[in-house]
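tool_call: predict_structure(chain=1)
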Amino acid sequence: MILQQTGTRRFKAYTSKHLDELLRRAGLDDEERLKVRAVATVLPFRTNAYVVDELIDWSAAPDDPIYRLVFPQADMLPAADVARLADLLKAEAPNAEVQAEANRVRAQLNPHPAGQKELNVPRIGDEPVPGMQHKYPETVLVFPKQGQTCHAYCTYCFRWAQFVGDADLKFASDDVGRMVDYISRHPEVTSVLITGGDAMIMGEPVLRRYVEPLLELEQLESIRIGTKSLAYWPQRFTGDPDADDTLRLFERVVAAGKNLAFMAHFTHPRELDPPQVSAAVERIIGAGATIRTQAPLIRSINDDPAVWTSMWRRQLRMGMVPYYLFVERDTGPQDYFAVPLARAYEVFRDAYASVSGLCRTVRGPSMSATPGKVCVDGVMEVAGQQVFVLHFIQARDPSLVGRPFFARYDPEAVWLTDLRPAFGERFPFDPSGAALPS
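tool_result:
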């Protein structure tokens, strides 16, 4: 296991090498454990002692929602694929043979959705700028090389391809100079999102290397930090050796006149329970940052309006701002976790109706699809036809933002590509009438 000194308590990470031992603790028999290990050859596994000891209710495993958040499940992938991989593991096949089969399965899982490998890659002249994405005019995403892992991996993560050890699937760069050069050449960019992986897996000296140059760019209004650390390792802001230095760095961002938006990922109310979380939130807000919360709607984990009502209310009391409820993206084991759009809308609507106006800062259910962030606003009858009402929160084509459009009602649809125009032959973002890319 991996040990990292963190003040009075050390961070202890569990990887696939420890998976079988932890599955025994969950009460899985030999056959079940073998199938889960087979899935873990395809999808990444990593958790830590805080999640294992503080968050998971082992008496309820394997049905416990936090357990399901971080541990692979035997039926997450097609049964035939799992069986082939399990047979290879049981026969103690050479690692190269196992990995070849795992790579074959991965290739079927749409590792880079929404055209991010082709459509979002920025360029200086004819040269691509690695480790960055530029999908919307105002916002650039930066993927620091040192931040492409997490304190623990979510089983549904749409960036799972970052963590499987295949360089061809990973976004990453440590060329800070090119990052600054690109942004400087694009005055329309007003916001930078440092993401991963998890930006807060980096120590303060490394994080500072990426943040400090951004403070000199007058065009930037905000710097965002994408992270699950508040849920999976809140000690990052309280007990880690560089916790104080990190908070001082946050203060410098605010003092430079930039809005520091801490994009915190909470998927279940239990992640808010430990006192370390409240302490970390208080310190981050005290440093001048705004904490905005977001997460996808995940079947078997949080597909209940009461779960979201509880999360949003507690986040508001703690000083955080509910921001997004996402639809599970079209990558990885989407079929296992996805909730139909009709049900997603019902969950969002019922939760939204149960909170005060201060919680209604949240937006959703939102799909981060190829043309942009598409929000499902409702289901209604128009001209005698039952339809989904949708609009763009953000779009690759800015002229589409805020414009409503309609899709035929389909109770089984789980993603934008499952929908068909309700009126006319094409959607407004598809003037060619061609099939939507996945």
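agent: The first strand starts at residue 2 and ends at 4. Proceeding to next step.
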